[in-house]
Backbone:
């Protein structure tokens, strides 16, 4: 037996997994984390589908009778719808025969013939809708999907903007130190010395009086992000102070990396996990804030629907026993916020295993 | 200590100046021409010019800033744009109802949260502990609005235990008739996040060496919790209460709106709705100053709670 002796192949260079790969691996083992991730992704997909018009496109169509019952309560009485129908019938004037004095009377027949040719489709208003209807007979289920789109979109964009502001300012303060730091700390102190709610309301007052914050959902996004960046700023600043003196940054300086490059090419990837957790946390916070602001009428404009505007309508509906809109908006929000909060916790654990 | 307090007061000056600048910039510059806001849509240039003169907005910016600074230091913000009531009077009369709600809330909430948190920390790691934490997470994710709407409907409208809303002139009647439902609501909603937070404070202490020492020398677990752990955990708990103190003065504006309590929170909402800038400006500036003072007091109090703290 002769075997050709060969050198055993050198072990392939084992690539050590990076922070994100490791975090993903840890997250996958976290059952709660994955479950909440699935729920959050589902809501995000729903938001995208609603935005592109795949679902809930005709949420504003009045399809059912006023306060149509949910399908599973088809039998129960709907006094409001009947009252509405009666009112409508009462306001219709009784037909009056004017043919004796009307000079256009000979043409009545012609008109009738013509009118008969035009196909009028009398839309029958549904007695029940999948999850009930609101005052105008709009489908609550579609409304809640559309409302989710607006609420989540506002929360996400405001959180993105706040993270951007917080990261930029925090990076500058932590990296440069000196007078930049002093100035930004002063700025931070100003914002945090005013109670948060009051700060939001002051911005809301200015936004609604001047109209300079734009139209549609832009004002609410700006209000939330311009007041909500302080926590992120503080954390990112601390990270930059910590990283600023590390060897890899010094090495980058030695090979001639500019300040900009050191801040955002070298340090930023190492602190981005902090920013990600903050982004997630602030999305939840801003979704909650949007709901309250929209309820008070400082949020999304009246022609849009969000969870907050739905809850505002629901307040009066509950007294007459129409609980479905309150339930739909409240439950959709509770599910998303619970999932998002749990996801934030899991993300934090996955990205920073030392914490546990 | 006096040196410390003096230095802290000295350090407040730039921040207060900054708050004044921010508010001025926000309302007088971004806020647009108040005359347009006030006069509404039907107005002629003469009227607008008149209002501008009355409010002093026809003056140069630096002069307006000077007027604003004077207003802050003389406690005279003039009159409300919408009701013509004196701003200082509005603030003084609205603080009472807010405190009638918020002080009981603060006391009850803190006591209950500390009590429950120490109980949960005592059974840490068990099914009970996990179940309570899950319930808290879910409870926290339901909007405050939903709680208010449902509670008001259930206890006020259906069961009729409390008046649905209202307020009277008499303090005792307010406290025992109109306040209980809003207080109960605020405590109920505030309990979950505080319980979670305080539990983590207790758990931090439980893992400390001195606790192990106490157990090693045979101190019963209950005594360890109530004497050793509780006392040390009170430090972060007090910090947390200190942070939430300024909020007591703003009150829960949602509760005040729903239960028509004539407090500061509702006043602010009304002012925002009516673009009543003087009221919002006054509230914001004074609450910012109050926040700074409360923070200083909390830091000084620290010294008495925790002798390890030294004033640097």
Residues:
């Amino acid at each position: 037996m002769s075997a050709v002796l060969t050198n055993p192949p050198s072990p392939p260079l084992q690539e050590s997994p990076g922070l994100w790969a490791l975090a993903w691996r840890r997250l996958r083992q976290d059952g709660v984390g994955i479950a909440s991730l699935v729920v959050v992704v589902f809501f995000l997909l729903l938001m995208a589908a609603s935005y592109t018009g795949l679902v809930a496109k005709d949420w504003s169509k009045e399809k059912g009778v006023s306060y149509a019952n949910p399908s599973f309560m088809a039998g129960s009485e709907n006094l409001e719808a009947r009252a509405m129908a009666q009112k409508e019938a009462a306001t219709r004037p009784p037909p009056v025969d004017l043919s004796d004095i009307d000079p256009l009377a000979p043409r009545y027949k012609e008109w009738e013939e013509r009118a008969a040719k035009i196909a009028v489709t009398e839309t029958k208003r549904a007695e029940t809708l999948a999850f009930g209807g609101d005052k105008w007979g709009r489908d609550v289920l579609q409304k809640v999907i559309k409302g989710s789109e607006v609420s989540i979109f506002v929360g996400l964009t405001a959180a993105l903007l706040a993270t951007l502001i917080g990261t930029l300012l925090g990076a500058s303060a932590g990296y440069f130190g000196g007078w930049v730091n002093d100035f930004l700390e002063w700025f931070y102190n100003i914002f945090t010395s005013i109670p948060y709610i009051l700060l939001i309301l002051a911005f809301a007052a200015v936004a609604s009086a001047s109209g300079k914050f734009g139209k549609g959902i832009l004002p609410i996004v700006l209000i939330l992000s311009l007041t909500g960046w302080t926590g992120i700023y503080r954390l990112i600043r601390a990270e930059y102070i910590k990283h600023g003196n590390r060897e890899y940054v010094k090495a980058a300086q030695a090979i001639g990396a500019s300040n900009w490059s050191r801040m955002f090419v070298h340090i930023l990837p190492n602190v981005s996990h902090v920013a990600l957790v903050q982004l997630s946390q602030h999305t939840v916070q801003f979704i909650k804030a949007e709901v309250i602001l929209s309820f008070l009428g400082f949020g999304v404009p009246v022609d849009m629907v969000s969870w907050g505007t739905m809850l505002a309508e629901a307040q009066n509906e509950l007294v007459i026993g129409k609980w479905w809109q309150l339930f739909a908006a409240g439950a959709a929000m509770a599910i998303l916020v619970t999932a998002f909060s749990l996801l934030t916790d899991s993300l934090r654990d996955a990205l920073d295993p030392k914490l546990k | 200590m006096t040196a410390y307090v003096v230095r802290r007061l000295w350090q407040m000056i730039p921040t207060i100046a900054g708050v004044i600048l921010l508010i001025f910039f926000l309302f007088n510059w971004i806020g647009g021409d108040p005359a347009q806001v006030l006069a509404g849509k039907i107005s002629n240039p003469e009227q607008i010019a008149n209002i501008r003169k009355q409010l002093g907005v026809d003056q140069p910016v630096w002069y307006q800033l000077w007027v604003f600074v004077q207003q802050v230091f003389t406690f005279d913000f003039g009159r409300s744009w919408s009701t013509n009531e004196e701003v200082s009077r509005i603030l003084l009369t609205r603080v009472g109802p807010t405190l009638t709600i918020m002080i009981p809330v603060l006391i009850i909430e803190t006591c209950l949260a500390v009590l429950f948190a120490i109980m949960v920390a005592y059974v840490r790691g068990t099914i009970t502990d996990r179940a309570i934490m899950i319930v808290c997470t879910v409870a926290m994710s339901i909007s405050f609005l939903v709680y208010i709407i449902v509670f008001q409907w259930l206890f006020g409208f259906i069961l009729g235990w409390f008046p649905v809303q209202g307020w009277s002139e008499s303090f005792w009647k307010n406290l025992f008739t109109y306040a209980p439902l809003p207080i109960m609501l605020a405590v109920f909603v505030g309990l979950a996040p505080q319980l979670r937070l305080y539990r983590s404070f207790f758990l931090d202490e439980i893992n400390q060496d001195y606790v192990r020492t106490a157990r090693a020398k045979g101190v019963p677990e209950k005594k360890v919790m109530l004497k050793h752990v509780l006392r040390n955990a009170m430090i972060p708990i007090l910090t947390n209460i200190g942070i939430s103190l300024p909020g007591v003065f703003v009150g829960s504006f949602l509760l005040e709106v729903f239960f028509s309590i004539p407090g500061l929170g509702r006043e602010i909402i009304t002012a925002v709705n009516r673009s009543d800038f003087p009221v919002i400006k006054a509230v914001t500036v004074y609450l910012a100053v109050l926040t700074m003072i409360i923070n200083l007091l909390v830091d000084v109090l620290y010294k008495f709670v925790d002798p390890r703290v030294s004033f640097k």
The mean pLDDT of chain B is 82. Chain B touches chain A through 46 residues (CB under 8 Å). The radius of gyration of chain B is 24 Å. The CA atoms of residues 275 and 291 of chain B lie 24 Å apart.
